[in-house]
Amino acid sequence: MTKKPIQIWVPDTLHRALKTRAAVLKMTMSDYLEQEIEEILGRPTLLELRQRLHHRRPVKMPIDTAQLVRMAQREPKPDPADFELTFGEDL
User: Fold this and answer.
1) What does the mean pLDDT of the chain come to?
2) H or E segment at 13?
């Protein structure tokens, strides 16, 4: 496989962060970035995801979700004072 260069200019802080991540993984920055780009290309774009969702058939649920939301809204909200936080070795 023939490889071709890609060149981008990034701020020093971003360059340092990328170099650090690559070093932690014991990789060259080029290998690290190639791996990250391959991972990005393996995910669908937002447009592709929207198209997939648009072409899916609707799911019919045997429950009324609007009713569930209304029921949840009527439930009393817990008082944060009712919760006891403990710190120490017993965790």
Assistant:
1) 90
2) helix 12-24
